[in-house]
Structure formats: C-alpha cells, structure tokens
Design goal:
The chain is α/β, with parallel strands linked by helices and 265 residues long. It has one domain: Alpha/Beta hydrolase fold, catalytic domain (Rossmann fold). The protein has helices at residues 47-55, 83-98, 112-123, 142-157, 160-164, 171-182, 217-225, 241-244, 246-260; strands at 2-9, 12-21, 30-34, 58-62, 106-110, 130-134, 203-208, 229-234. An eight-stranded mixed sheet has the order 1-2-4-3-5-6-7-8, sandwiched between helices. Helix 7 (217-225) links the parallel strand 7 (203-208) and strand 8 (229-234). Residues 31-251 form the AB hydrolase-1 domain.
C-alpha cells in the first residue's frame, strides 16, 4: 500500500511516496531502496519484493522529490552540482524522521541512488548498518555524459516521455531535473571520492561489465577508498544489474547482508 510523508525542503512542503514491504517481519533487517536518476517506486517493479522475500527482510521503497508520485519539481527549479549531497544530507534524514525511522537500515542504491547511499553512509556512519550500491557514480566519465546526451535526444524525438509517464506523475519533472544537471558543464567536476573515506559500514558494490553509463573504475575506486568493500563485476550485464541479472543481484545482496548483520541476541 502506498503511503505519503511530508517534509519541508527547498523552502516548501514536499510530499514523498513510499511503500513498506513485509513490515510484520519486525526482527528482520530493514532494506531501504534508493532509485536511479530516472527511477521511482514503480520503476523498481517487483525487485524489492523479490529481494526481501529471498532474504526474509523488511523493505522500504520511496520516490525522491520530483519523481514518481512524490511532489514534482517546480518548472523553473534547477538542481545544483551538489544535488546528490542534498538528497543524502537533507532529504533522506528528513524523510526518515517523518516516518519515525530510528533504526539502522541497510541501503540498496542504484546509479544516482547508489551515490546518495555512499554519501549518506559517509556523513552518518552511525546511522546505517551497511550499503549495497549498484552501478554507482563517484565521478563523471565521458561515457556517462555521452549516453545522457543520447537520452536527451531520445526524450525530444521519441515516445520516451510517454513511457516514463507510466512511472511518474510528471515525466518532465523527473527527466529534465536529472538530465540538465548531468549535462551542465560545471558538473563535469563533480567527484565524491574524498567523501568515501568516511564510510565505516560494510559495502557491497555491484556493476555490470557492459555498463553503458560508467566504467568499472567506479566500483574499483570505491574499494580503494573504503577497503572493506566487496566487489561483484557481472559479465553480460549493463547499467541495471537488478534488471539484467536479478537472480545474481539478489543472491549477492542477501549473502552480503546475512554475512554482515549483527547476530540475534
């Protein structure tokens, strides 16, 4: 069942949609799913349910402001270079507070959501049990920009707006917020490698070898700066391992959480 939580952010009231998975598993680890740059609750489809069922976990899936059924971005709202930092440092804590979440969750983040998970874990090391990051970004690469430029052309010339409209109340809000900041020339300098040293929790980093939005240097760079990181590099897999190879993504994540969770008293 979809629920909504209100927070105050960017000097206005914002409504965030979220869905709880298996809340009755009260003693189970809680996994919070952080979606990609064009994602939402609906865009995950049934993957969070599958992962939680496989591991016997609880789940929390939500749409960031501007996405899904959450409050859309104002038409003239332009995101800044630090937009992922603000999601990690401002939106996520405010959302957790709004829904009364005070335990240490596991974060499962894809793409931009993975970057946000890394930033949150670095800033709030005592508030997260561990993180699974899938095709995250820690710096900007030429291949990323080139494919985001192709996405802009597709949005302007194909039925991509209609297809995205299945997952967002406002496809324009979701697409242009993401696309414009990634193609903003100063964003080429965006880099969160220095922040990674602050991560203390266990980290699992998964990436497809054929990722069209980044090279394996993204997760290898995480492992160099957070040496507790476990890496999984998947052959015949693109930017979305949870869609390209869901069984492998689930097995890897469940095994990782089970190996690193605190034993029951």
């Amino acid at each position: 069942m979809t629920e909504f939580a209100g927070i105050r952010w960017r000097e206005r009231e914002v409504c965030i949609e979220y869905v709880r998975i298996a809340p009755g598993r009260t003693d189970a680890p809680l996994v919070v799913f952080l979606h990609e740059g064009l994602g939402s609750v609906a865009m995950w489809k049934d993957f969070p349910q599958q992962l939680c069922d496989a591991g016997g976990f609880r789940g929390l899936v939500f749409s960031r402001p501007a996405y899904g059924r959450s409050t859309p971005r104002d038409e003239d709202e332009r995101w800044d270079i630090d937009f992922m930092h603000r999601q990690a440092y401002e939106v996520l804590p405010a959302f957790f507070e709004a829904i009364g979440l005070h335990e240490k969750p596991w974060l499962f983040g894809h793409s931009d959501g993975g970057s946000i998970a890394l930033l949150y874990a670095a800033r709030f090391p005592d508030k997260v049990a561990g993180i699974v990051v899938v095709a995250p970004h820690i710096f900007v690469e030429d291949v990323t920009v080139a494919n985001i430029e192709e996405a802009r052309t597709a949005y302007e010339t194909t039925d991509l707006p209609q297809r995205l409209g299945k997952y967002h109340d406002s496809a324009d809000s979701a697409f242009w917020g993401w696309n414009r900041i990634w193609l903003h020339p100063p964003f080429r300098q965006w880099n969160i490698e220095a922040e990674l040293a602050g991560i203390r929790c266990p980290v699992l980093a998964i990436q497809g070898i054929d990722d069209e939005y980044g090279t394996l240097e993204q997760i290898r760079g995480i492992a160099r700066r957070a040496p507790q990181t476990q890496r999984v590099e998947l052959a015949d897999c693109g930017h979305s391992p949870h869609r390209d190879q869901p069984e492998q993504a689930i097995v890897s994540a469940v095994t990782f959480i089970d190996q690193n969770r605190s034993p029951k008293p």
